[in-house]
Specification:
39% of the residues lie in helices and 15% in strands. It has eight helices and six strands. A hairpin with a 2-residue loop joins strand 3 and strand 4. Helix 2 runs antiparallel to helix 6. The radius of gyration is 20 Å and the shape is globular. The two termini are 32 Å apart.
Length: 220
């Protein structure tokens, strides 16, 4: 497969013992990550957010179409409008749209329709998926869009944690108001909203246990 469209690849290789240590260290570091609802308004630099997002954009995607846009919002007026619209939808969810089972599952987290973290966190990152691109006035189809954007969002969450920050995956449903408020083109659809910042000094998280190895790995 040599030719003008390919170049030599030199991987980042490690001896087995170092590879095992790095894998264990990274697992233990990521195992400290928690979804948080208590955000400080302490500033986070634009450069940090830029590199977090570019890490997310390094994710693999179907046919390398990179079918995503990341909107980084620090403007207080826009954040306030997003909060108002999100809370309107969430109120409807908590008062009729969600099933009793769903509400029961959420009870352990102490959540409700109020989303003050949207106002407080210094940044909101809105992840948008692109089913197609516009190229020279014509539609260019993207592939495995949900999977690609989901992987990129995982990269994003990992990068946020790596920077010493916290986040929360928020999906107010329906989310189409985000495209209107952010004046996005019709080929972009909301996928995820993440507040990004530092935790408050008195932040708390639910006492939870993650599934054990035997519950998530099947060896063959």
């Amino acid at each position: 497969m040599k030719g003008k469209r390919f170049k030599a690849y030199k991987g980042v290789g490690f001896p087995t013992d170092e590879s095992e240590k790095r894998a264990k260290d990274y697992y233990e570091f990521m195992d400290l990550r928690r979804s948080l609802r208590f955000f400080s308004d302490k500033p986070v630099s634009k450069e940090v957010i830029r590199n977090i997002i570019m890490t997310a954009s390094s994710a693999p995607s179907g046919a390398h179409k990179q079918p995503w846009t990341f909107c980084a919002v620090s403007n207080k007026t826009i954040k306030s409008k997003i909060r108002d619209a999100a809370e309107k939808e969430e109120y409807e969810n908590y008062h009729g749209r969600m099933s009793e089972e769903w509400l029961s599952d959420l009870a352990a987290f102490g959540t409700d329709w109020k989303k003050e973290f949207i106002d407080i966190a210094p940044w909101i990152i809105v992840v948008l998926r692109k089913p197609y691109d516009e190229v020279d006035g014509r539609k260019s189809k993207n592939y495995y869009v949900q999977e690609s954007v989901g992987i990129a969002s995982g990269f994003l969450i990992s990068a946020i944690h790596n920077a010493g920050l916290v986040t929360l995956t928020h999906t107010p449903s329906p989310m189409n108001f985000l495209c209107s408020l952010l004046d996005r083109p019709v080929n972009e659809k909301p996928f995820l909203l993440l507040p990004v910042g530092y935790p408050t000094e008195d932040a708390v998280v639910p006492i939870l246990e993650r599934k054990k190895e035997e519950d998530v790995i099947v060896w063959y």
